[in-house]
Write a structure and sequence with these properties.
This protein has helices at 2-22, 28-44, 47-82. The protein is mainly alpha-helical. It is built from 3 helices and no strands. Helices cover 78% and strands 0% of the residues. Helix 1 (2-22) packs parallel to helix 3 (47-82) and helix 2 (28-44) packs antiparallel against helix 3.
């Protein structure tokens, strides 16, 4: 029963990982979900299933981090573009 659970979780993790890879946005949610399923497969699997689960887990966590970093950078860039650049510099005497 435990090995069957590992096989199903590994299959779901790979589908979610590939789905996250085919999305055209920086969406770390699918990679994080794939990492969760791969973690269950690592815990429940043996042998080759555990090995491939570890590979999927590491890849999913890496892509989750990279996509999150991309979102943060995009957010910062968006904030910089929206900041007023023509404002007069404030001095000690201006109110």
């Amino acid at each position: 029963m435990k090995l069957e659970t590992a096989k199903v979780c590994l299959a779901v993790a790979f589908v979610l990982f590939l789905g996250g890879d085919m999305m055209l946005c920086a969406c770390p949610g699918l990679y994080a979900l794939a990492a969760a399923f791969a973690g269950v497969a690592v815990w429940a699997g043996k042998g080759r299933i555990r090995l491939w689960s570890i590979v999927c887990l590491i890849a999913s966590l890496t892509f989750t981090g990279l996509d999150t970093l991309s979102l943060v950078r995009d957010h910062r860039r968006q904030n910089q573009m929206n900041a007023p650049t023509n404002a007069a510099p404030k001095t000690m005497n201006s109110k």
